[in-house]
């Protein structure tokens, strides 16, 4: 996903494979299978370009991270356990993360 987000434009399987080949040895078919599965799950958009498909992320990195965090939080029942999970999370994000959360909560509270 990082390569697709960083590209800024849809990439073919070959382009993704070439970018990944520098870091690890992966078969072309493995990259193709993963991208196809991500497309079927709605994580990436698949578009036909001549004889190849191009893939692009459906969400930004930030949107996907937020969705994953909400999914994890949604797995915790409402009540004290959920509140404790939120407190634990805030305690682990550090001062800069806490400041960003505080600013986001203020913006959400003011309706902007």
From TrEMBL:
Protein's name in the database: Predicted transcriptional regulator
UniProt-recorded Gene Ontology molecular function terms: DNA binding
Keyword Transcription regulation annotated: yes
InterPro entries for this protein: BlaI_family, WH-like_DNA-bd_sf, WH_DNA-bd_sf
Keywords: DNA-binding, Transcription, Transcription regulation
Record family assignment: Belongs to the BlaI transcriptional regulatory family.
GO-annotated biological processes: negative regulation of DNA-templated transcription
Lineage of origin: Bacteria, Bacillati, Actinomycetota, Actinomycetes, Micrococcales
